[in-house]
Amino acid sequence: MKDTPSPTYVELLNDFNIEKFVQSQLADSFDHGDAEDPFLVCDLGDVVAKHQRWKTEFPRVHPHYAIKCNTDTVLLKTMMALGTGFDCASKVEIKKMLELGASPERIIFANPCKQKSHIVYAKEQGVKLVVFDNENELFKMKKLYPDAQLVLRIQTDDSASICRFSMKYGADPEACPQLIDIARNLNLNVVGISFHVGSGCQDVNAFVKALQNSRKLFDYAKTVGYDFNLLDIGGGFPGTKDVDLTFEKITSVVNFQLHQLFPSKQFPHVNVIAEPGRYYAASAFTLVTNVIATRQVARDIPAEGYSDSIDSVRNGVTPTANEERAYMYYINDGLYGSFNCLFFDHAKVTPTLLDVSAKQSKFSSSIWGPTCDGLDRIIEHMLMPQLNTGDWIVWKDMGAYTIAAGSSFNGFKTQKVYYHISDEKRDLLTKLADTKVKGVEFSCFASSMCCQANKKIQNLTKKEAAPKDPNPIGENTEQPIPVYM
Ligand SMILES: *Cc1c(COP(=O)(O)O)cnc(C)c1O
């Protein structure tokens, strides 16, 4: 089946520099109503670079982007252009990809425990690959979708992962032969094995063990008449640089194990896929928040270093000469929004301040979200120069499990995303774009319309001395480059 993409209008910023961009926002922020709203900046070039790195490091493994990680439409379109598949876990996720034009063959329905109506929807739409991990799911599939291509998800040892899944999903490898027998007796079509080592995996042996178990089950399946053709090694690949177990370390170990356990000669028909989420999304997005309120508080100078206790920052006490000043900053995104990653994804975030010099004196500071909940605290304590209302705080690596799970509790939700891509990465995207994926309009990146627009449009970074723009940046139709993806 062909991909039938729907056009998406994207305003692409030219020659992007985040500091300059933020400064131009700042200049406008008090004159234009919502110009102080928080926003995200997405570097599509980062996604392209990640994909190139994947292809280099993992030539045998075809990525199926786990869309739950970040369902930004332009990101998904870029992934479509790059030719990846997609891991969807629900009817809505499948629908989203189909509406964006992905063919059902590119989708794996990777949720082992599914609602009946979602199974029926997958069947109606021709999404064939469906994951299961228990007996009841097999009976459900027999009744609702007997000719699905079933993938058995096995448990992994995820004890060294930050976000663990195996207490919830995956069949015990010891019990898998029995499950395979049941599927056989039900005359169901099991085509392969999948696993997920957990997010933030710190121990590469989790992959080794899971691959060994997979091979055992490939062998077992053969004895009951199946010839598996799919091996799905899941997600859990790091998307940022601040990790102990690097992507390259994982790929070198996994490639070696694939070579040992699933040599291409012996398994030429086996399609090896993965379900990376954070790998693609994490570093592509930068969140920019505005300081909407500040509060000066007193903090007793701690006797020995800094105490971690929240009580060390006392609210509402006027500082005296004997006390060190401390500050509380309230910004317009928080734990109920993009920073839900602190809670659900065990993420660590670091603020980047603009326009500060090392010489400025620093004060104990805490950073809080905008909702009325006391739990909505992003940074408990950090030494920072003094900030003012209207200042911007930049947060890098905010693409994975951030906006995807953020709520609009109390009326706050970061909505606006600005996109950019460097000329070099745009060329790379055109080169990498999978020409075999019929019907996907990736060529827009190199289209003459874009290039002309490119020349006409004033370079954002050269605008410093220009008089104040009557329109806030981004809403000014003259500056962004319109692109159809
Ligand atoms: C969440 C999830 C992924 C993606 O995990 P990352 O750590 O973001 O790579 C992949 N597969 C399944 C089944 C998932 O639930």
UniProtKB/TrEMBL annotation:
SUPFAM superfamilies cross-referenced by the UniProt entry: Alanine racemase C-terminal domain-like, PLP-binding barrel
Pfam families (alphabetical): Orn_Arg_deC_N
Cofactor(s) the record lists: pyridoxal 5'-phosphate
Protein name: ornithine decarboxylase
Reaction equations catalysed: L-ornithine + H(+) = putrescine + CO2
UniProt keyword annotation of Lyase present: yes
Keyword field contains Secreted: no
GO molecular function annotations of the record: ornithine decarboxylase activity
Transmembrane spans: none
Pathway assigned in UniProt: Amine and polyamine biosynthesis; putrescine biosynthesis via L-ornithine pathway; putrescine from L-ornithine: step 1/1
Assembly description: Homodimer. Only the dimer is catalytically active, as the active sites are constructed of residues from both monomers.
Active-site residues from the entry: C372 (proton donor)
Organism for this UniProt entry: Phallusia mammillata
GO cellular component, one term: cytoplasm
GO biological process entries: putrescine biosynthetic process from arginine, via ornithine
